[in-house]
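Entry 14. Structure prediction run on the chain below.
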Amino acid sequence: MSDLQSVDTGVDKAQEENSEEPVFLSIIIPAYNEERRLPGTLEQIDRFLRAQSFTYEVLIVENGSTDRTTEMAENFAREHPYMRVLHSRKGKGAAVKMGMLSARGEYRFICDADLSMPIEEVTKFLPPVLNSYDIAIASREVPGARRYDEPFYRHLEGRVFNWIVRILAVPGIQDTQCGFKCFKRDVALDIFPYQTMDGWSFDVEVLYIARKRGYRLVEVPVNWYYKANSRINPIKDALDMLLEVLKIRLNAWKGVYDRREEVRQPAETET
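Output returned:
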């Protein structure tokens, strides 16, 4: 069942009539209580996109915010016809899944609202700079990557979790948790309907499914700037992630990720 709703956001009629036409790049921004960071992020993305020759869209997927995130996103969308605001259930994974399955882009790029990776780096993930891949993962660990201002303890936590992920789920990938990833259209439509996790470990789950399907994953070195996030509880989140990685293996054993003719899609609302 679809909960699709629509309100007037100032998008002109011509744009609405062409809303189903494909575009080259979709940028998907999961947004939870981002009223302070979102306006500046959208301004930076807008400046970047207006300088490009390809077609594009931006999907802001609000997921259970209790602040003015929706208001901020809708205000910006009224003045930028290429932008849509969607609403998912709570959880970054739920927001990304909805965005990926609602997008129109040939390339579908997950972008954290904090822009810890400068938006200009997106070109590293697209032709002609990068070709012959199915999923491109922003990496803070491969040669050529640089981290800025990250506390040592945060880096250590990330490396410990990645070690667990490489052993149990996605061997060979040095950085599964950086919040910037690019999926080709057909790959996204094949993987995300099978995603079951709404929380922080959705990255590991979708990459596990991708590996299971034989897709080609590449890591792209990026410049990454640490942004403090008070919503992270290192001990609790690490334990939750470990349990979810084990659940991924259990799901695989139970056949949850096996291709099926009908896969339930997430209900969406749009404003």
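The chain has one domain: 13-148+175-231.
Filed with the rest of this week's runs.
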